[in-house]
Write a structure and sequence with these properties.
The structure is a single chain. By secondary structure, the protein is an alpha+beta fold. The chain contains eight helices and eight strands. Strands 1, 2, 3, 4, 5, 6, 7 and 8 form an eight-stranded mixed beta sheet that branches. Strand 4 and strand 5 form a beta hairpin. Helix 4 runs antiparallel to helix 5 and helix 5 packs across helix 6. The longest helix has 21 residues. The radius of gyration is 19 Å and the shape is globular. The N and C termini lie far apart (about 60 Å).
């Protein structure tokens, strides 16, 4: 009888088989690591989004309100992602993980999303608003099909978007700033907030 796991195909299964090989006694970990990067390593601009104060809103207004805001967030924000060739990889509660090949398109998407959010929020009660926070990173990541991505710039984008940015802000790593330095219509302000591990210099995007 065949092993059901061996019959599965896909990036996730392949990755974890290699991780298991890496764990074996005497494994050549450098060689396994090279194989993993050869298979899954790609350069992407990573966007992490979050909604400011969302946990407090859920606690105050309940799960149905949570579902309403998630629905509105997708309807409101994802068109800008599609228009700029972004790929939605993962949704976790009120957070999106989105990948873009072109960092300038990622920035255009982020600006479009923020403007849509700000316009939407203008005439709404606080509990019905979509207060968007965005973090962007750019560099080599391990992209595991359409299910997840890992890497230093993923971690930095997540920290900037989920923990550091406030509503209306777009925070970016230095790698993003370098990649979009000649982009018209945007400016940069050094982010002086709490340090983000693995990303020494970060910036607030002016748009």
């Amino acid at each position: 009888m065949s092993n059901p796991d061996e019959d599965l195909k896909g990036s996730v299964v392949r990755l974890w088989h290699l991780i298991e090989e890496r764990l074996k006694p005497g494994a050549d970990r450098e060689r396994v690591d090279r194989r993993i990067w050869d298979l899954f390593g790609e350069r992407w601009c990573v966007m992490f989004t979050d909604l400011a104060g969302f946990s407090r809103q859920v606690a105050a207004f309940g799960i149905i309100h949570f579902l309403q805001i998630i629905h509105e967030q997708k309807r409101l924000l994802l068109p800008a992602v599609a228009d700029n060739d972004g790929i939605l990889i993962k949704v976790e509660a009120d957070s999106f993980l989105i990948l873009f090949k072109d960092p300038k398109k990622a920035v255009r998407a982020a600006i479009g999303m923020q403007r849509a959010s700000i316009g939407y929020n203008r005439d709404r009660a606080p509990e019905d608003r979509v207060p968007l926070c965005v973090g962007l990173g750019y560099g080599e990541v391990l992209r595991i099909g359409d299910s997840d991505a890992f890497g230093r710039e993923v971690n930095s984008a997540s920290k900037l978007g989920e923990d550091r940015a406030t509503a209306g802000e777009i925070l970016i790593t230095d790698a993003v700033r370098t990649a979009i330095a000649d982009m018209p219509g945007v400016g940069f302000e050094r982010y002086e907030g709490p340090e983000v591990a693995g990303s020494e210099v970060n910036w607030r995007l002016r748009y």
